Amino acid sequence: MERRLFLITICLFIGISWATAQTKTLTGVVVSEEDNEPVIGASVLIPDTSIGTITDVNGEFVLPGVPAQAKVVQISYIGMKTTNVPITDKRMKIVLQADTEVLEEVVVLGYGSAKKLGSVVSSVSTVNNQKLKNVPTPNITDALQGQVAGLAVSSSSGEPSSTSKIRLRGVSSINAGITPLYILDGSPVSEVVFTNMNPSDIANITVLKDASATSIYGSRAANGVIVITTKKGRMGEKAQVTLKAQYGVSNLIDNGMKMMNAEEYMQFREMLDPKLATDNAWMKHKEIVQKNRINTDWAKEVYQNNAPTYNVDMSVSGGGNNNNYYLSLSHNNTEGIAPTSEMQRTSLRSNLEISANDWLKVGLNSNLSYQKYNANPDVSSDVSLANPAAFARLARPDDASRYYSVDEDGIATFGDRADYLHESQMLNPLYMESYRDRDRRNVSGNLSLFEELKPVKGLILRAVQSLEAFDYTYTSNVPPINSFTTPMGDVVQINDGKGQARESFQRFYRFTFTNTAEYKFNIENKHAVTLLLGQEGIMSKDKSFDVVVDGITDGRLVMLSNGTEYLPPTDAIIESVFNSYFFRGDYAFKDKYYFEASYRLDGSSRFTPKHRWAEFYSLGAKWNLKAENFLSNAQWINELGLRLSYGSTGNSTIGDYAYQSLLVSSGVVYEDQSGTVVMQPGNPDLTWETVKSANIGLDFRLFNRVYGSVDYYHKKTSDMLMAIPYSYTTGFGSNIGNIGGMVNKGFDLNLNVDLINNNKLFWTFKVALNYNKNEITELFNGLSEYVIPDTGAKLQVGKSSGELYWVKRAGVDPRDGKIMWYDKNGNLTKTYNESNAVFLDKQLFAPWTGGFGTTATWKGLTASVDFSFALDKYMINYDRYLLENPSEMGLRYNQTRRMLDMWTTPGQITDIPAAGEKVYLDDSYVENASYLRLRSLSLSYALPQKLIKRSKIFDSCNLFFVGRNLLTFTKFKGYDPEPEANATKFNYPNTRQYSIGVEVSF
């Protein structure tokens, strides 16, 4: 036995010695050829093995366990050429060269492989993560404003869960949708994706503008396409953990409409009614106000000052020899400035790719989001006094914010918050919000699974299965509130002691199945050909219901089951199917001439069977002028390319059953049977709206400093989907049809200038500019014009779809204080008549939009300033119609200071009519809503590497500050000039935000 143990021990030592002799340890450093600086995080790998490591912060590596028979070591790093270096016994120094092909920006155009920007035939623009990741609002689209020429983004509300309006190169339709198609990692999604995603998860956003880029998306791409690409890990990269925390505050933006203070309002009331000067009750009230300095600014009472917002997120990215991954978790909490408006969002993202072997790759991209939010519905209820935006301006300043009692000397003793305003005779919205219990919850998911096969060289077969889904619930409870008497003697009735409960639910899902075959080949290194063939199917279902009960008498049990009055519930199911076949071919000759063609056949259940299928196509070409011999010696020209494209896209953004005759329950029960009525007449001829567009563009880079692009486009809409008015004798007011045409034409300019670019300082300036002219070319039934009643809008051939149409005010007659208007013939009249309305040559949609900014980096300190603007934009300020209306509003509610200039005596020159004059909504309320806004100011500082190394924990640490909407220059006097609406009616004000944060990685 002892002999056997001895022999085993001897064999073990021999084995260990033999194994040790068969391996060795490599050491070395990896540097960049460009600046001889260490390359941090470069992959060091022994080919055909799993033995590898990465370089440290000094570019150095130690790789043990290298087999003795290994001959070379492979070094790779993104943006640099992968190189194989012979192994030596000494400490190695490896120099990596920049890979110009990798460094050239690539763009994702949708189906198929990404393309190098220099080979793109289409008009596209890309916004990178640096502009997105530190956005202080939950809505990512806010960061896109002013970044892309032709992309108009308007934030019409400061409500935390609101979304922005986006349009690209004008308005292509009147009644159908005008928002772009959104693509997330290759699959179509709805616009809510911008509020349920973490901005830090986005790698870049690409905007596809012309037909060459969008036609392959067919009937959904008439308004352009926005492609969102999320982050991925890198194969062979060690796990990198990034932590970020951000905190900020929001405040109300200043506006140009100045309300009266208490002294001014009392003066104004006496102007309206001079008898008040001798009225004992009024004079007593005036004395109390003056003696106790009652002067309430209701905006400060209603809106929250320094409403907090914070965001924390963590991500882990990296990869092995055959996989890469990106995982992130984030939480955002944003409080609005208006009562009961807030949002909490938690999102989880997982992006995973696995290369099973040389010919098979699979991956999963997923985003799960949970949102709990409260959107105050009264803020969007026009002129309701429950709307805090309306209350803040209409409530009288001589009303105290707290109840009070007065002693014999007129000295007031103040008590609790005034839930009912004694002078204004209106409820304080803060009181109602303290009783209401509203809760909105949304659980959403975007999942995309793909399989990619490469059976033969150049052929890529790819299948994608994606799901977009959400469950939305809304609960609203108002307890029974009995009538009460305030300390100031007012009797207040709310709901007569009968509460209300409401429950809503919506479930939506959309499955998208996309299958493509892409084949690439090259002939004699001159002719590069790419052919793409694909099929796509989309199925969606939307189910919802809403139940409301009244008559709840027990405030402890505000539930549906305790109601005594049941309102008819609503229930809806919407289903749709979409199927497509598409093809794209690309050809390039010597990287000098590029040609592209695409074709798509779409079928949709939204249209009648005889018009269910439609064809769309595009042709495009690009000439790389710099590759020609006649420019080879022009050293100042680095890049120069001419692009041409023409094609068609469609618009199917209408109701899913728009072509069908629909029945709806009448709500009437007759002999125990429910009745039905016709809700919608059918239209068997309804078909696709089509947009045919042409684009010519020039890409350039000069002196290696000035680069950009300029494009001219022409878009013609035909078979335009719009509501056609019916005679009321038919029983219907209107129905949708394909009558109408429209043209949009204009240009885009993207210009970047690197003012300073050296090893110490980088300073760049950019401009994005768009001009668009819109014109209606055809209306229904051969009409040349059509007035949309009570909207201030008229459609007329030869005019813009957004040109305002109102009666023109001539001023106020100094002799009697009466309002004067112009009739259609230009004559003065003192009788208001809507038939005298004329076009004002003022546009609802700004023809000039864009932005400009500058970024400078010096020794780890980066400063970035971005402005956005919209010019020649006009909007009705409906707030002024109520706040400068003495005859109907002034006796009860506050007014603007302009009303102190009201006409009172003959000969007085003013634009404010006499007290008894009825005012009408005319062009005097149309205001110039053009604006220039300091959209974003950001400062960041990256701690020096010497300091980071001492921690022996972190790879990087960045401190940053972001300011949003810091300055606004506008003539518009309302809360905000941004909304793209015919009129603003006490909208939720936009906000000014300040935030600070820190981001570390290790």
What can you see in these coordinates?
- The protein is mainly β.
- The chain contains 12 helices and 59 strands.
- The strands form 15 sheets. It has a 22-stranded antiparallel barrel.
- Strand 48 and strand 49 form a beta hairpin.
- The longest helix is centred in the first third of the chain and has 20 residues, at 2-21.
- The protein is globular and about 110 Å long.
Q: How many beta strands in the DSSP annotation?
A: 59
- What's the pLDDT, averaged over the residues? 88
Report the C-alpha radius of gyration, rounded. Answer: 34 Å
**How many helices does DSSP assign?**
12
Q: How much of the polypeptide forms β-strand, as a percent range?
A: over 45%
| Biggest sheet details | 22 strands, antiparallel, barrel
Return the structural class. Answer: mainly beta
* Unreliable runs: 1-21, 100-104
Sum up the overall morphology in one term. Answer: globular
Fraction of residues in helix: under 10%
> How far apart are the termini?
54 Å
Brief description of this entry?
With 1002 residues, the protein is mainly beta.
